[in-house]
Amino acid sequence: MAYVRMKVDRREFVFGTVAMTALASFGKAAAGRPLVKLGVVSDIHVADDTCRAYRMFVKALEYFRSIEVDGVLIPGDLADLGRTEQLEAVIAAWEKVFPSSRLPNGEKVEKLFVFGNHDDPKMAGSKRNIEWAKEKHGDKWAEHLIACDPKAAWERIIKEPYAPVFAKRVRGFVFIGCHWGHEKEVDAFLKAHETELGLKGGKPFFYAQHPHPLNTVNSAHGAYSWGHDRGDSTRALSRYPNAVAFSGHSHYPLTNDQTIWQGAFTSVGGASTSYLGWLSGRDNGEWPTSERPGPVPVGSRLGQKGCHALVLSVYDDRMVFERRDLEQNAALGPDWVCPLPACIDEASRPYSFAASEARAKVPQFAADAKVTVSTRSAKDRLKRTCDQMVVSFPSARSDGPTGRLIEYEVTVENLHFGFTRIHTQKRVMAAGHVYADESAVKTDECAFALSELPENADIRFVIRPLNAFGHAGRPIMSEVMKRGERK
């Protein structure tokens, strides 16, 4: 473990009184120049300088340049497949936008990067990449995989000292980074440098690692949560209510109200500029084909969409998180505003899941929304052709500034001898939930193989729109029909 000192410009940090003024101003933008401003993107997955991921990364950096950030934080997955050429493309993009790490006005912009699993031995050292490197580079193949010598790759390409866990200062604020696989070392590092770095107190400090700290962001899905570590960082950071952790890995979009969490500390997911991730178990989400050979909705999985970024501005009485859709060049929703000092009582934090859930509205269908049902022959997840019934419906919309539509529950009801029973049920992600403009997608749908439906029975389809916490708006339903009918 090491502490890397970086000499950068500093600005005096003066705290205002939290009292009632900060709480009363919750949700409002702060005026004046922030004490520090950071651009945050995650999981950029740059493969080369021609891919979409590279272009989206450049676009993010250009936006950060336009608002004059003091640093850019990337919590992992810089290179797509752990190749040094890909890390070189990341830095080429950086130098294209920030020559010599400077803004046009000459101010320094700090690189606040850490490695993720795609930069890691388990990915970069896979047989596929080793064979690629040997074939292309012969005896020097090892020089072209980051995992063969992460320290050498970092120092040659990033041009900064490498340590598994490290610290920097940006305008008087402490930033701590932890590279993938070294989360167990964070606790010892914080204890060893607590006094030196001034970690105790009301002034926030910032931490980055690739996986989400366990039981923080996106953890309301319980056993089905994905993308977190084993709890080492959560235990370490829980001693510091002024800690603000950034992570990635899951690619979960910033429209999801669970992408910010406040408990013993503050934790924020960084989404992705490359492609956004979806909840597991959803028919058009991240469900392995070997586990569910069900029918595929039109468009199959919803992957390869979206490009999200954050801007953190810290003032003397609050932190403001701007959520940005870089494809639509628009805000993804209201800013997340957190009163300072950061050690404010845990129960008063506005982005605890309990507070966010209580505040979130439920999405609703328009009053005239109708369900239509059609039939088709299409392939399922195992690429087998099967007859399907396709349920289509107008996209629901949020009923307020929070509580975005995230997904739908689609139920097949069997009207059986005078009573109704559930025959089967699915969840599908809402196609438009990743966009700034909720009207970008007009309709959603869900497909059922005929084999999933009861034969010679009266059925109907019932659709409920859900927010991130699973709260449902008013349902709409199809007409009663038989399997294979169109309505």
What does this structure look like?
Residues 1-30 and 293-299 have low confidence and may be disordered. The strands form four sheets. Strands 1, 2, 3, 10, 11, 12 and 13 form a seven-stranded mixed β-sheet that branches. The longest helix is centred in the first third of the chain and has 15 residues, at 52-66. The protein has helices at residues 19-24, 52-66, 84-97, 121-124, 127-137, 150-158, 186-197, 232-237, 353-359; strands spanning 36-40, 71-75, 110-114, 165-170, 173-178, 205-208, 243-247, 260-262, 266-269, 308-314, 318-325, 330-331, 336-339, 372-379, 385-394, 407-416, 419-429, 443-449, 458-466, 476-477. The chain has nine helices and 20 strands. The protein has 487 residues and is α+β, with helices and mostly antiparallel strands. Helix 2 (52-66) links the parallel strand 1 (36-40) and strand 2 (71-75).
Provide a compact summary of the structure.
This protein is an alpha+beta fold and 487 residues long. Helix content is 17%, strand content 25%.
Core attributes:
single chain; 487 residues; alpha+beta; seven-stranded mixed beta sheet; six-stranded mixed beta sheet; 17% helix; 25% strand; disordered N terminus
N-C termini distance: 65 Å
The class by helix and strand makeup works out as alpha+beta
Rg from alpha-carbon coordinates:
24 Å
Give the % helix.
10-25%
Shape: globular
Poorly predicted runs are 1-30, 293-299
Number of helices: 9
What series of H and E elements makes up the topology?
A: HEHEHEHHHEEHEHEEEEEEEHEEEEEEE
Strand content is: 15-25%
Largest sheet, strands/sense/barrel: 7 strands, mixed
